[in-house]
Design brief:
The protein contains 2 helices and 13 strands, in the order H-E-E-E-E-E-H-E-E-E-E-E-E-E-E. The chain is of the alpha+beta class.
Length: about 220
């Protein structure tokens, strides 16, 4: 009986803690803004059907890696200019990577923003510091999360053979214009059991302007 009572007490305590954390997140009214460049790749074919309000293809899942190059941003009074926030999403979890250059206040600010973006909130989320490399050129994009992987993609050129295909107002991402790309590789692994290894899959590149009122 004592063991059963102790177990019930622990479960009640955990429920209270979880409820408190959820309430705290809901009550966070801090104003934030982020502007910059989003580089993303996923496991879907080109173009990703999720971007057109349809189901993933050719698989029944859409696993993703993306990085935000924050040109200008803040969380309350905490400046976030020049930092990166990245994430990897597969079947086990969403793992957020916060720029290793961030101060403790900037780390907590980016973590708070990530929590409020509700990116695949049905999965457990984890937060880690990391060196994040994000490159955008006239012909492609690239993201590397040190020690875990990333992707490299070439843009899909249009009919003129000179300029990439651009799609406006896609679903799945809050981007006014998205440059479509095709991955040379998409590789990633972590300690939570996520493993990605794809190529010739979809990539998006676009400028974002998000706030606490209108994010992902």
């Amino acid at each position: 009986m004592m063991k059963h009572t102790a177990r019930v007490t622990i479960l009640v305590f955990l429920a209270i803690v979880a409820g408190h954390a959820a309430t705290t997140a809901q009550q966070d009214k801090t104003h934030w803004e982020l502007k910059g460049n989003l580089s993303e790749a996923c496991s879907c074919q080109v173009p990703c059907t999720c971007n057109f309000r349809s189901h993933p293809s050719p698989h029944d899942f859409c696993w993703t890696i993306f990085s935000l190059d924050i040109v200008k941003g803040h969380y309350g009074k905490v400046k976030l200019n020049g930092l990166h926030l990245a994430a990897a999403h597969a079947d086990k979890a969403v793992v957020w990577y916060i720029d290793e250059r961030a101060t403790s206040k900037q780390f907590e600010a980016l973590k708070a923003i990530a929590e409020r973006l509700h990116y695949h909130s049905d999965l457990p989320s984890f937060f880690k510091g990391a060196r994040i490399t994000q490159m955008v050129t006239a012909t492609g994009n690239e993201v590397e999360i040190e020690g875990h992987g990333g992707f490299k993609a070439d843009y899909v050129m249009g009919g003129d053979g000179k300029n990439p295909i651009v799609v406006e107002n896609i679903t799945a991402w809050n981007l006014p214009r998205s440059i479509k790309g095709r991955t040379k590789y998409l590789r990633y692994s972590d300690s939570h059991g996520n493993n990605l290894d794809f190529n010739n899959t979809n990539s998006n590149e676009g400028k974002f302007d998000w706030t606490d009122k209108h994010g992902l």
